[in-house]
Design brief:
Layout lengths: L4 H10 L8 E3 L2 H11 L3 E5 L12 E4 L2 H11 L3 E2 L2 E2 L3 E5 L5 E10 L4 E7 L6 H7 L5 E4 L8 H11 L3 H21 L1 E11 L5 E3 L3 E4 L8 H4 L9 H8 L3 E4 L4 E5 L2 H13 L6 E4 L6 H12 L6 E8 L4 H14 L6 E7 L2 H10 L8 H12 L5
Parallel strand pairs: 14-16, 16-17
Antiparallel strand pairs: 1-6, 2-3, 2-6, 4-5, 7-8, 7-10, 8-9, 10-11, 10-12, 13-15
The chain binds guanosine-5'-diphosphate and manganese (II) ion.
Manganese (II) ion binds next to loops.
Length: 380
Amino acid sequence: MNLHEYQAREILRRYGIPVPPGEVASTPAEARAIAERLGGKVVVKAQVHAGGRGKAGGVKLAKTAAEAETHAKAILGMTIKGLTVQKVLIAPAAEIASESYVGIIVDRTSQRPVLMVSPAGGIDIEEVAAKTPEKIHRRAVDPRYGLLSHQAMMLGFALYKDVKQARAAADIMQKLYAAVYGVGASLAEINPLVTTPDGAVQALDAKIAIDDNELERRPDIAALRDVSSEAPEEVAAREAGLTFIKLEGTVGCCVNGAGLAMATMDLVKYYGGEPANFLDIGGSSNPQKVVSALRIITSDPRVKVILFNIFGGITRGDDVANGIVQATREFTLKVPIVIRLTGTNEQLGVEILRKAGFSALTDMDDAVKQAVALLKGRAA
Ligand code: GDP
Ligand code: MN
């Protein structure tokens, strides 16, 4: 789950990291009122779950409250990477002497949290990572001991020559590390971490992604979810109890079990197709889940063929078949559907499908081949 910058800033603040104050507005008039209250120069920042807001015109400095209102008017309603801006953060503008990057990710390869810092922070950090990776310093942290002072200090010196600033940065890194564990984050990033002309070090932007598996035991963090700014299909899938990830292809996949779903996507690609999504209807058996899954898959105009791959264990073939039939009664499928159904209650399922005018295959390979062939307009 992604947090908005203003929520992430609040968490950093709670852990003692210096962050300028700020307030959120959803109308230009509110933005103006906040800017008046703050006084002086402000920065108006789009609150969307996307990076690169600066480059997209979603971060603007304003000298007056009237100017803040104008910027808010332009930024509210703007789309950044497909997401509509519904809120802006108004914060006092900082004067910037330097911009660094500090991030922590839970790294699967080293199976540890990894600190990444760079003195070349700011909006071009992706380019720095791609072209001059030597400017990014990494350190995997042993979770048994946490980020020790001398380790943090070494990373601090990778950012600043000045001892006081290096120490301030080291302190921020240790606090960020504590925040990662405190909120169950899989990623926490400060970019830019700035120095001001008077030498202070502070966080001007914050990005935190929460590991979804942590939400159950952290209701306060789960409550930060902003459904209105998430992809609608992913919201619908979560509410229906489905595991769904939107992808770029044209083969809508509906599978039971995450492993089989992965294998299905591999096979789709092997035969020359591209999956439109990852979707696991889960082990439990429930026709309604299938209806929800089909509704979500067919809401994507890019989907040109639907592929069911069901290997019934706990999932029952008749439940899946009933779900497919029920879905087609509730809405019309505008694209062909290929069904592979085997395992528990296979005979019942196939019979239900046959009566409703569908046919089912038992072999996964055949089903995927047929789906890709339909996509390409030829018979399998
Ligand atoms: P992002 O592009 O989505 O990462 O948004 P950021 O919050 O990181 O802002 C992008 C850039 O805008 C930063 O790298 C800064 O150069 C600039 N910026 C952001 N806040 C301020 C501020 O308070 N003062 C000044 N002078 N520049 C800012
Ligand atoms: Mn940033």
